[in-house]
Design a protein that fits this description.
The chain has 312 residues and is α+β, with helices and mostly antiparallel strands. 14% of the residues lie in helices and 33% in strands. It contains 4 helices and 19 strands. The strands form 5 sheets. Strands 9-19-14-10-13-12-11 form a 7-stranded mixed sheet. β3 and β4 form a beta hairpin. The chain is globular, with a radius of gyration of 21 Å.
């Protein structure tokens, strides 16, 4: 169960930006009731409760992650559309609209303590120009390719195969890695909603036999091909975005995989004082990055209103 939970937690990490932000507060009703939205701190990125649920112990920080307002357990999390009304088990004073929610303990929090994620690797919104010590302002060709639906594509409401082709060609021109020549080096990642829209655009145009309906990719996954590039869907992905990843250019630092931690020679299992019970701690020492940022590209801003996730 711990490994399953860790795997789901990795989804949150890999789509984030290293700050650990789960959502932003959009309405403050009282010291115990707020409304949150914008998973990962990204405007209109999906359901506000995607990363927030009842029973979680969370912290509220100001938008700069410099000042903590307080910590509390989520008593209830009620989702309506892309908004989530959160009731805190303990009052948190001085909350304001724009504050952010992060994971926490009674003495610490995850604020600015996450590994890198796709959001800052791809420099979404040009908000993460400095990455791995290299500035995309000073070295502009190092930057990832970012397109905006409806501005750099023919439509913001519909996604087409030509949008993917355009993105791949822009990445090829900037980086030298051409997805049309080596499609298996690349991976497209998007939401189930955009995946469905793209599939619907092919209806009546193609006949796919069972043997060619899916392509096997590393890790045991299967993917459909768009412009010859494997595409997978992920409901943890921020809404309205399509990522084009050059897999060989992504890096994974794994100093220690998920496992039990021993403190001061006490062993992996510790007795809880005053209780007939034991506890253990799990950790991993990991990070995510890219050796060539300009081999990555993304399109943001597609209309993506279908939600296929655990949030009901």
């Amino acid at each position: 169960e711990a490994k399953d939970a860790a795997r789901l937690g990795m989804q949150e990490i890999l789509h984030g930006d290293g700050t650990g932000v789960k959502a932003t507060i959009t309405v403050v009703t009282s010291t115990t009731v707020v409304t949150c939205a914008n998973p990962y701190g990204i405007t209109s990125a999906g359901q506000g409760g995607l990363l927030v649920d009842a029973g979680m112990y969370l912290g509220v920080y100001d938008v700069t992650l410099a000042t903590i307002r307080g910590r509390a357990t989520v008593t209830t999390a009620v989702n309506t559309g892309d908004n989530c009304v959160v009731t805190w088990g303990t009052a948190i004073a001085d909350q304001i609209v724009g504050d952010v929610i992060v994971a926490a303990t009674t003495s610490d929090s995850s604020a600015n303590n996450y590994p890198n994620g796709l959001t800052n690797i791809f420099n979404r919104g040009a908000a993460y120009n400095v990455f791995e010590g290299i500035s995309a302002v000073t070295y502009s060709r190092w930057d990832a390719t970012r397109l905006v639906a409806g501005t750099d594509t023919s439509s913001a409401t519909e996604i087409s195969e030509m949008d993917i082709w355009d993105l791949s060609q822009r990445v090829a021109a900037r980086s030298g890695f051409d997805a049309m020549q080596n499609p298996r080096e690349f991976l497209l990642l998007t939401t189930p909603g955009l995946y469905k829209k793209l599939g619907e655009s092919f209806l009546g145009q193609r006949r796919i036999t069972q043997s060619e309906a899916a392509t096997k990719i590393r890790g045991g996954f299967k993917a459909l091909e768009i412009c010859g590039i494997p595409m997978v869907q992920d409901f943890w992905c921020p809404a309205g975005v399509v990522y084009l990843c050059h897999v060989p250019s992504l890096t994974w630092v794994d100093s220690k995989d998920w496992g039990q931690v021993q403190y001061e020679g006490a062993g992996p299992w510790r007795w809880i004082q005053g209780r007939d019970a034991f506890e253990t701690s799990w950790s991993a020492y990991i990070n995510f990055g890219a050796v060539q940022r300009n081999a990555m590209g993304m399109i943001t801003g597609f209309t993506d209103t279908n939600r296929y996730s655990h949030v009901m």
